[in-house]
Task: structure prediction
Amino acid sequence: MQLVLEKRAERSNTIALVSPLIAIGLTIVTMTILFAILGKNPVLALHAYFIAPLTDGYSLQEIAVKATPLVMIAIGLSLCYLANAWNIGAEGQFLIGAVAGSWIAVKTQGTDAGAWVLPAMLVLAAAAGALYALIPAICKVKFGASEILTSLMLVYVADLLMDYLVRGPWRDPKGFNFPTTAEFDPVATVPLLIEGGRLHFGSIIALLVVAAAAILLGRTIKGFEIRVVGAAPRAARFGGFNANQLIILTFAVSGALAGLAGIIEVAGPVGHLQPGISPGYGFTAIIVAFLGRLNPIGILIAGLFLALTFIGGEQAQIAMKIPLDVTKVFQGILLFYVLACDSLILYRFKLVFPNRQVIRGAG
Amino acid sequence: MELVEAIILSVLAASTPLLIAATGELVTERSGVLNLGVEGMMIVGAACGFGGAWLTGSILIGALFGIIAGVLMSLIFALMALGLAVNQVATGLALTILGIGLSGLIGAGFVGERLTPAAHLYISGLTDIPLVGRVLFGEDAFVYFSIALIVGVWWFLYRTRAGLILRACGDNHISAHALGYPVLRIRTLAVMFGGACAGLAGAYLPLAYTPFFIPGMTAARGWIALALVVFASWRPGRLVVGAYLFGAVTILQLHAQGWGVGIPSQFMSALPYLATVIVLVLLSRARTGGSTAPAALGIVFVPDR
Result:
């Protein structure tokens, strides 16, 4: 008996729609088993993960806050992946954006700088993220160096740069030697949407980004080029589309979005620059992009779902002492199932029983 | 002289996990499969390796645990990328994300525990030779094994029929399939070998390099191993050179931090990563006249029956 794949005549649209749901279902089954192995009551654990965060207003806001960077980064990554450019260094672009934006916040601290500070921070962060993403893109286009490896290496460089700044020149003199900048001034802080709540203006920006991406991919020639270059490189070449130019463009856009997400996180929910501002948003966003089927609306939904697992993971840790790493395992398993189910869109699985060879006697 | 010897010893120690992991990945890639999950397989190998050694008190059993863990991880990859024809880049990333989570979960109980590190060879007389004695005759078993491993892989790839068939799968899976070779089975074995090596390389870290387990202790070594395979143009001989060069960069920056050169330590720590980027650029640039990568690397293959 053997499992073989059979190519479908055309891609199955039904499965394209339900495959993320199948993947989530399979993940939850797997997690139930994992919780049982860990000696935790699976029903209570799943409740803590997926239901409890949805039942109070504070957690709901917190989900939107966590989803904001995930969605923004994943939208950018989806453009790269559609164009078959593998940016996996969004985490680094996120950190560089956070650092670049914080530079203005730190330098204007305590001065009477006006309302221009926050917009300038956002612009600089996006520009820095884009430039940082252009390093692997240019190395790829000009020299043929694998963008996968270079973009990932730069994550560690960005992390060390930030570490240096918050421990060295930017450290808060009144911060009891903790590696952190001073709390940003109000003009350098992303405003809240609800007074006293958690939800901030960055979530609106994330929604605008989703809308812009939907228009770009669905309504413009550039969006069409991106999709063709990724799906049918030969056809794209005949069509005269410049694949290298699109690699540069998609990397720059995704770097800018990651950088923007970085400064919004720092100037929003965190309020100052410090190590550990990201629980791996740049990597989780890869899962968000795939779970959302590289589609802007899908990514919005997927981002909210993965944000739910972050919040649920924290609640499960507090309530049931379930280790936080379970969230990462959950996210990894989810990505596997998503990819496996995606295979169903193009292929049909078939079990084959090899025929016994019948040996006939001569004559 | 003492210092030179100490530096050579530490370079060898730092290079060994890179060499072992990159050797495995080289075989995997020569069969036409790009497994980006080396980092994930390594970190799970590190957690399981430490766990195995800590529970049984045996470094050997620890190393075996690491190998088994790496193979199991690689089987997930093989099932996805070969069995279900999923994009190899995405699957490899998923494997790394999963591995980081799993290692945290497995290793949680061992954080803070210490272990007697793997013993070093000692041959009375030979090991005591000044300068070269400890370098040649005073290493731990992993170092000798890594050298035997890369020699074995070279011999296998270039001097055996099976190695030729494996390379054929990597260069043109359609022809290899047409000739009747079981491409997917060969690739699965190559992926498993890569997993075993990555698991062992991961286990080396808590068993011999630093005698304790900390989450994330592989610190991108799996990714550097991947870059090394590119650096080596998929050739075993150059892989050895590359691994020791990278080990030397790692140690150089550690020593420079110790000497207090006046450069912030974070900049020195960033050196191995920056070196990887620069080396990748220089090599890819030098290789403008056609790529030396296996021609079918990373391309999905679904056999028609």
Chain B touches chain A through 51 residues (CB under 8 Å). The radius of gyration of chain B is 19 Å. The CA atoms of residues 107 and 298 of chain B lie 32 Å apart. The mean pLDDT of chain B is 89.
